[in-house]
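Let us work through a complete example step by step.
Step 1: write down the sequence.
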Amino acid sequence: MSLFTLILLALVQGITEFLPVSSSAHLILAPGAAGFEDQGVLIDLMAHVGSLAAVMIYFRRDVAAALEGKIALAQGRVTPGGRLVLLISAATPPVLLAGGVLYFSGLADALRSPALIAWMMILFAIPLWAADHFGRKAVTTQTLGLRSAVLIGLAQALALLPGASRSGVTMTAARAVGMDRAEAARFSMLMSIPVIGAFGLIGVIELARGADLGASLTEGLIMAGLSFAAAYVAIAVLMRFVERIGFLPFVIYRVALGVAILVLIA
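Step 2: predict the structure and record it as tokens.
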């Protein structure tokens, strides 16, 4: 696999993983658009490793607080970090359950359709715009209720549709329940930690079952490093400018890409 291919895939994975534009859709479309074969299990796994490292390091204070909060919860005390753990724990099961059904039933491959991706890109742009335009700005992770966290988690399960975007649907739901843009983005990214970890576990299972690596370990490590760098920059830029620019640029991009795909298909 060429260095150009690794750089392209790393940019696609790292940048789109945390922006509300669907990383899965871009990773499905990228090989065909650039004219190279599917990247294989190892590259996918290492790309997720890089993204996971980026979000954990960028939000290292939240991660440290959550780890301390787990200990406090075990001792019967609820700290801010422990409350964050409870919220993420309440939001995570729906996507893991739905993902398990798709994976073990073999339906996941049936969803890798360019037409489906195009329509999901367009359709899920509408609630993203509406929630951002009409949403309140009164709720933080310290005032978010467990019921609202479960609702955000249910929305996250929709991200298994390629083109829907995990970050997009969770930010949409977070804005709908009253979080401001920065809090919605922050909570969405913290929610991604167990989800990306689960996707990485699937990659490990595939490798253990003898799946074709598709690349060497050296190429995998390069992918992890490049994906980490791209994801870290994407997170930093989004968190710095999200309150100022809002989600409208991503809405426009989603609709434009969806329409372009439909035109190419037609």
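Step 3: interpret the result. Residues 3-265 form one domain.
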